[in-house]
Amino acid sequence: MSSPKQADLLFAQGLELQKQGRIQEASETYRKALRIHPRHVHALHLLGVCLTQPGPWPEAESLLRRAVALAPLNPAMHNNLAIVLRHLGQHEAAVAACNQAIALKPDYPEAYGNRANLLREMKQFEAALRDYDICLTLRPNAAEAHVNRGLALRDLGQAEAALASFDQALAWKPDCFEAHRERALVLAQQGKNEQALAACDAALALRPRHTAPQFERAGLLMRLGRTREALAGYETALAIDPGLVQAHYVRAILLNEFGQTEAALASYAQALALRPDYIEAAINLGFLLTRLERREEALATYDALLALRPDCPEAHNNRGIVLKELGRLDEAMTSYQTALNLRPDYPEALLNRGNMLKLRGEFAAALAAYDAAIAARPSYAEAYNNRGLALAELGRLEEALASYDVALAFEADYPEAHYNRGLTLNNRMRTEAAIESYDRALALRPDYVKARWNRALSALRLGRFEAGWRDYEARWDNSELKAQKLTFSQPRWSGTESLDGKTILLHAEQGFGDTIQFCRYAPLLTARGARVLLGVEPPLARLLGRLEGIAGLVVRGQPAPAFDYYCPLLSLPLACGTCFSACRPRRCFLLGRRPPSSAPLPSPSSAAAAAATGAPLACGSSEAARPRLL
Known about the structure:
Radius of gyration: 40 Å
Strand order of the largest sheet: 3-2-1-4
Structural class: mainly alpha
Distance between the termini: 76 Å
Strand content: under 5%
């Protein structure tokens, strides 16, 4: 058998194998034919076509160019060369090859379809549409061309026309996966989430293990508020493809929302293991670790991201917050400044820099930073709130009030701004208005300890003792006073339990002035049948040793005798159900070294005693906005 005939026989065998989908075997057979007859044009052509499936694409281009050189009038060879050139990113050369195919065969639908795809990728959408229309005129049942035409219409912003094109594809080919999927994406862009979900389900019915529609379906479920189903959807996608980075990221967000903190941390970590420079995942992981007070881990997360992405201002900003919480204040300021060097109009970094300046006592500089944050984001309620704090520190109280009011105009449900407004009103001696602001803060955040405590002080100033003493119990949740709280194995007396024949320990809790003022309640309890022990600091032992109505003193640091109940001194007005004036003695109630008759009682040392006697108050600390982690 002559060499050409052997080559033709091998070519025929290869062609049959190719028709059966046995591409690798077909490729090997074509190569055998070409070893016998290197210029066998059809073997060159179809081997090039076979290589478009597994690759390599450069070899496919070389083979097809050789085929075209041998048979320049064959339109299919030009068209297939265009397909290879498109995959190699040589779009201009690919369009030229399509042009040649169409010149040789003007009614060639595949060539028009391929040229349209190229033009769409080159963003020449109108020209692409013309070619799709010609393709579909020549072959109306070309479902793929209908889908691609729909994509061009989508890119032109013609969503309804795009949907009509996808529907046309499905009319010709109801099991067209691409048409169902692309239809779902366009419907989702229109906000038609239920319809999009149905289209996505149709696509998955055809290819249940295709990760893209699995991921997209989970996103639609999130939009519909079906978050538990969304989480299951992301987990299904990850079971199919564990390397789906974004699915790990969104799964972590959902797990965190469901309170599964450790699982969320692990999912963020998995996303970063797959893509170490994934900014959003690193930022969220660092944020969550910061919230959990795992600050060293949060710092390491931001440092790892910045090693790869030193130009990420969000990471520098958040790193500054962690450093501040670690007490490394100079480094924190450096991180905020680095963030601002990268993005000078970064509102959160400007706010955080202002907070650092305020912490240093540089109130004028802090005010300038807050003003810059507001210039960058005019509706920035947190910046207006903190601006008010700086103004208050500068003694510009009316301006501070105006700044809080602007913050509340932008964010009416901002408890810290209501609270700070209350403090400033109180300092302006507008106590009723201050209480109204504290009320609003507490309505928004019932566990707002500082607001409740300062409302107590304001109520006591106005003589509203019942409400004031009730709120004053919030002091035990105040970080400034919590350390002074004493606990015993015996129950605390609330005022409802009978004291007849019982021993009760009344203990000091704050300043000496409080002890002196509120020890006057001891005789009331004695009158109820109680045996009263008074717990005091050593310096007051001599003064209070002969107080009427007590059975003995317990000096702090010494063991206490047996007792049945205990009560902090400043909880006695509430427990006894009396106002301060009802307990005012007719004569000096301290029987130690008696002061001259014209001398006042010892001055109270705390805000509570001052409030109870109607004196001006020095209220608690103001509240800055939360550190901004973005």
